[in-house]
Amino acid sequence: MAESRLSRILIVDDDSVSRELLELLLAREGYVVDQAESGEAALALLRDGNRVRPDAVLADMQMPGITGRALAARVRSLCKNKILMIAMSGSEADPEMLEGFDAFLRKPFPMDRLKDALVNDETFSGKQPETPHAPVLNDDVYKQLSRSMSRENLAKLYKLCLDDSRHRIATLRQAADRGDDAECRRQAHAIKGSCGMLGATELKVLAEFIEDQGLVANLMKKLDELQMACSRLEKVLREHKSAPENTAVAETVKGSHT
């Protein structure tokens, strides 16, 4: 794989856990990462003359406020086109909304796809195939992560994901009780994104169903299944932890993310 000439990346996503996970994964690849919780915050950061501008912007397409081609156009106006724009979304993107972007990544995406997009900045990556379903944990994703960081830091990464998922499941129950369809879909979308990136496929698939269907009659049953899926994932992770540790490049996770 060719080496990227890029060094600094700005992640723009309204979901804090997705931002944290992406920063952890990109930081271990040697990138310097900045974060913005909205298109407006990203533009403010780019206007700040005291900050180093990023070489690439990785922007979620499903945020409130400025997003899609409007965000791409304003970023390019500020940076005089000297920036790589990568869009990401949990669903297929309208081609018109991708105007101004160099690449598109369908969530959840493996790090190899992101690294390819950062290197092959003249090629639009286009539509990606669906991630294959796995019962609880995608072992290929887990092994890839375990080869790149210490067992302790890997455990922190999955704990962050599980803690956030359980918090969002509780929020989902409250939203369902008051009949808030939009909030149900938003929380499910966040679970789908973070769990998909870590190969927590069962959680990802259940969350995807809730995001697609919203306030369906069996929603509470699906939320119970989500809760049980968290417990099953913990069990699988404990089994992995009890196995002999593979040779890995131990890295220190930047900051405290627990």
Keywords:
single chain, 258 residues, alpha/beta, Rossmann fold, Four Helix Bundle (Hemerythrin (Met), subunit A), 2 domains, 5-stranded parallel sheet, 9 helices, 51% helix, globular, disordered C terminus
Q: What series of H and E elements makes up the topology? A: EHEHEHEEHHHHHH
The CATH architecture term of the largest domain is: 3-Layer(aba) Sandwich
Over the alpha carbons, how many angstroms does the gyration radius reach?
18 Å
- How many domains in all? 2
General description of the model:
With 258 residues, the chain is of the alpha/beta class. The chain is built from nine helices and five strands. It has a five-stranded parallel sheet with strand order 2-1-3-4-5. Helix 6 packs antiparallel against helix 7 (181-197). The protein is globular and about 50 Å long. Mean pLDDT is 82; it is low at 121-134 and 246-258.
Sequence-ordered SSE layout with sheet pairings:
Blueprint: E1 8-12, H1 16-27, E2 32-36, H2 39-47, E3 56-60, H3 68-79, E4 84-89, E5 103-106, H4 111-119, H5 139-146, H6 151-177, H7 181-197, H8 201-213, H9 219-242
Parallel strand pairs: 1-2, 1-3, 3-4, 4-5
Helix pairs in contact: 2-3, 6-7, 6-9, 7-8, 8-9
